[in-house]
């Protein structure tokens, strides 16, 4: 600090920036310490604005549409003075939904409106169906005194009792903390990159490369830096629902979160799909950050992580800052990666791509010209544990593809693989990955091996393979700029071809490292490109023995092999630049490659931005209603992760068989399960079908009975004959899962501790 303060005093620009930061933090702090706005609205305080609905008081004294109404706003409050922030709307209500001509269930809720523009965010939050009390969150951008709360009826009977509006003070303090962190990191970056700063990175070449890499991160993140941007893509509601589901699970006391309790009938994709990284945006949600901003921050974090890991890995492999910068930019701006980010919103896949460069970096250490040293072996082990462990936690299909590619490489280098040093590294890495992830793997393997959840993959027949083949890209699509960025990147094709040209004509002049990396990357990378097209014989793959074809056809879409192609062809391109650098041809080639990459990004944004939705996605726990068409979260999962017998529709699950034989007097769905009152016949055991999908995450907390799966795919409880009373079923993991979590936790502490001890010894 003694060195920093004199530097700041000498710089007028630094003092101005510091003053601006303090002003923003001070203003946010002043808002946080103000008394929280708190309004209570009784039924007789609403103003009727309905045009078609019949507005009256119901038997309980609530006001609203007492007969099924058309879709319209029916009530509004007087003008309220609200400051910027989040507001919890808590309401007592009665809602009896109807169905429209498409057999969709209607919904009702509230929203903010204001006389002045841009004051409120405009989202409509919907109250849960089947309850009489709910809390939703609405947002105000700017302090204003013309804001009103409006009640909206999408069709059906909808009446309101007491409604309270209370400012979320937790979020107000989170905003203060957010601005403090933003100011801290901005100042830290400036101190690291300004040449005159006492904390500046002394290596000017490295400093410049990192600065340009930061610019590439901003370029790749443009959609999420725009107002309302980045909330678009094939699977966006699926992943926003996952973030919301984890957040709600954490709030209800689950850790780790196994079930999305706010989904209709409960939903458990976390048993099939690694979600560790999504705890970051989910924790932000629990602090009051909007689901949209939480997702934006997640994307920015993944972008920075991708750039950082790529630069670290390429720098380790090529020992050259500018070569590492070139590779990082080409990888960061790769068309297929941008397609995953924005066109498809493939969160698992683009997150997995952040860790891929660590795998070739580790292989280069283990399979170099000489046997790896003890230090190199330790670094390679750490890199593989992080890479394969995070692939397991982000995208199982990417893990499968990388394991297959790595296995081919290791089998070809069989002698080195089974050397004492390398084999020990592999065994140690695999053991650590398995133990670190046992908390996820044990439930996953039990679920997948149960035979109850069979809707995961398309099958193992030749026809299933042909269906996958039909979905592949055409070869012209793969190698040309086109709509939706369905290509691997012209710059990588150019770089790959240049490497092959240099190798064919001057193979004896190519250094061993570049030759080996380039040939392997080109060979497997081009094979991966072929596998992504509709010319690859996926039908023949489907004809292989059941287990083998089942694993290979689990990719669902063949172009997922471009995940592998993107990293490998980037490496081949870097080999071409590295080989030509001493001959002064490296710089022109790098300029050509960067120009092609930037041109491709321009085409991508020209095609993408006009399509992108800028509708603000709200903050309600009932995020499953964010889409006006689909109201059942499971709909977003394409029938995946459902137990056999479960048949979904847009509003829930179809009950084709009658399972309940006991008399159920009262049933209430809670945050973590179901509570009911029942009585069973004295002669035979009774069956009770619960409104919960069958997953082995529930336990009987009160009452007696045996759990089973009903024909409808729901959770059933067999209760003793002649019994009666209260039955309470809630989330309760099996003891063996808890033990697996403990093993993973101990392994994490032991592994991190050993790394810190080794680092301390090396200092």
Helix percent reads 40-55%
Outline type: globular
**Helix/strand class:** alpha+beta
Q: What's the tally of helices?
A: 25
Strand content: 15-25%
Overall mean pLDDT: 87
Rg over alpha carbons: 29 Å
Q: Termini separation (Å)?
A: 24 Å
Poorly predicted sequence stretches spanning 5 or more consecutive residues: 619-629
Assembly context of the chains: single chain
- How would a textbook summarize the main sheet? 6 strands, antiparallel
Tell how many strands the DSSP assignment holds.
21
Folded structure, characterized:
By secondary structure, the chain is an alpha+beta fold. It is built from 25 helices and 21 strands. The strands form five sheets. Strands 1, 3, 4, 7, 10 and 12 form a six-stranded antiparallel β-sheet that branches. Strands 2, 5, 6, 8, 9 and 11 form a six-stranded antiparallel β-sheet that branches. The longest helix has 28 residues, at 291-318. The protein starts with a helix and ends with a helix.
